[in-house]
Amino acid sequence: MPNRQFVLASRPTGMVEESHFRMIESPIPSPAEGEFLVRSLYLSVDPYMRGRMNAGRSYATPVEIGGLMGGGGVGEVIESKHPGYRPGDVAVLQTGWQQYAISNGKGARKVDPSAAPITTALGVLGMTGLTAYFGLLEICGVKPGETVVVSGAAGAVGSVVGQIAKLKGCRTVGIAGGAKKTEFIQKECGFDAALDYKASTDYTADLAVLCPDRVDVYFDNTGGPISDAVFAHLNFFSRVAICGQIAHYNDAHPPMGPRLLRYVLVNRTKVQGFIVSDHQDRHAAALVQLTQWFKEGKIRCREDVVEGFENMPRALMGLFTGENIGKRVVKVG
Amino acid sequence: MPNRQFVLASRPTGMVEESHFRMIESPIPSPAEGEFLVRSLYLSVDPYMRGRMNAGRSYATPVEIGGLMGGGGVGEVIESKHPGYRPGDVAVLQTGWQQYAISNGKGARKVDPSAAPITTALGVLGMTGLTAYFGLLEICGVKPGETVVVSGAAGAVGSVVGQIAKLKGCRTVGIAGGAKKTEFIQKECGFDAALDYKASTDYTADLAVLCPDRVDVYFDNTGGPISDAVFAHLNFFSRVAICGQIAHYNDAHPPMGPRLLRYVLVNRTKVQGFIVSDHQDRHAAALVQLTQWFKEGKIRCREDVVEGFENMPRALMGLFTGENIGKRVVKVG
Questions:
Q1: What's A63's DSSP letter?
Q2: B137 lies in which domain range?
């Protein structure tokens, strides 16, 4: 049986399409001393992957043409020459887009299938949950009573941001596209209010109503005209975490928009970009807290499971058209 | 003899003009118990004053139509019913745009004419020097060896930012308009390199040459296309202090430009707006340090003195066309 893999066929200049990927087959690798072999069970698709398909300077090296698409996954250890992993163990690691992956244990951790569904290791109890946690608590430093606005609020990160903000005593306003999503974030994630940007004809006016005390914290996953409107409602000494700019990942040309720095000046706002791996030394402690909240039912998660390894490209593409509610994963085997 | 004052005649919608001000005469006021009367010697003109002429929300209350234009000044105490001030004392305080001002001492401090020229109390040893100090050291947290870029580098704030950055062991690149200014910042302020934006046909390409290790700290006084180019060269974990956006203070419509948040995300940049009065509790300590540097000749200052109270409006207007090198003050008496 071969190892099916997706490699980058060509670099997109605008919207990513299936033709930018190519599925290849290679032999299943054997672990060397100190390594283990994993069979992928679920693979993650995340918006940041679009950035890695570009050649430009970024925080991570771009995927080479013909190179394996990178990404996280959970899988079952099927062979091991590593002292910490045994066959039958479930692990979360950087698998890449493939059915079988070798690891030396670096960046990997074991997952306890009896504690929570193993898919959560890719979501609320994994990279996206940690992103929500550090972005809201470290970058924004939320305080009780503050108004927190979240764009991409029905997504994997945004839906967790809203719930942590509620746990911290904030008023939460989520921005999402469509009635299903705004219902989800209010009923399942406990957002106090929601703005359906697909139904709104004036984001700025609608936000004025939803945020009568202005916006103390803005957790931005999207950028674009939604962010423009939120910036116009920032409060004095507000904080903005730039987690994602999904509205622009598929832009063919550098996007233009209203200049926002005047809002930053007048309000003495702090705007800060971040990525979760910058906080890696504290991931373990944060996962303890997130797991506790999850077990206590204080944080819920919705997962959007796409069936079939062959659907990896389309699963990723769907993130940019807003198909998913909650964390999207691909079920491989 | 009357007290001549400038009041706001009307709100500008674009570039400020003389017609937006009106000079009036009123009786010289008498100090009540606990107050003192000052005769203005030098009045400050600063870009922030343009913002106060607008009705919009900002960190300070707008000037009312018919209201006295606000601002700082240094003057001589000529009558006092305040225990801390005696006739003959020189003080710096919020005089407003007038020849005589009453103060209860709040926000005022005495100036020692034997220590430094009294005009410095409006500049390097006053509001603009403190702005440079807190913006660079607190907001940006510069470290030795970092590349610091300053826009408006020949201005009252920017010229001091560059000198403090050099004292802290940074490499300094100043952006200013015209050969006189770029010569000033390099020869008098010790900037390592300068970009003359009036002579440049490609800010981005020129900055790439001037900042081969990218930009760790950007102290922004201007905004506009200069800032766009600097953002494109930001380094990982860079810091940007938004001190001013003088390029836009006279815009009639909200300005458009390239979206900058993607640079903030990729570099995990911190962008923060600030105003000097937010740090008021530490002004005294900072002034001790600035005064020491000044006395030791480690920080030099250039002042641009406009003669005559009647020229206050034109002195302010000139800030927006880049007339001044260093701190502009108006000599009143």
A1: P
A2: 127-277
A266, B236: Cβ pair inside 8 Å? no
Instruction: Closest CB to A259: pick one of B57, B248, B269.
Output: B248
Contact B152, B244 (CB under 8 A): yes
Calculate the average pLDDT of chain B: 97
Which residues, 6+ apart, have CB-to-CB distance to B298 below 8 Å? B163, B167
**Separation between Cα atoms, residue A159 and residue A198, nearest integer Å:** 18
- Give the pLDDT band of residue B84 (cuts 50, 70, 90): very high
CATH assignment of the domain containing B262: 3.40.50.720
Residues B244, A265: C-beta atoms closer than 8 Å: yes
The domain tally of chain A equals 2
Cβ separation B271–A274 shorter than 8 A: no
Segment A88-108 mean pLDDT: 97
Is residue B105 located within the same domain as residue B141?
Answer: no
B-chain residues near A257 (CB < 8 A): 256-259
Residues B67 and B205 in one domain: no
pTM of the model: 0.96
- Mutate: best of A50, A227, A261, partner B, most B CBs <10 A: A261
Do B92 and B192 lie in one domain? The reply is no
Instruction: Tell me whether residue B44 is in a domain.
Output: yes
Pick among A249, A266, A269, A274 to test the B interface (most B CBs inside 10 A): A266
| A254 vs B contacts (CB less than 8 Å) | 258-259
A290 is a domain residue: no
Q: For chain B, what percent of residues have pLDDT higher than 70?
A: 100
Residue B297 lies in a domain: no
3 state DSSP class of A259: coil
**pLDDT, tens digit (0-9, with 9 covering 90-100), for A134-163:** 999 999 999 999 999 999 999 999 999 999
DSSP-derived 3-state class of residue A263: helix
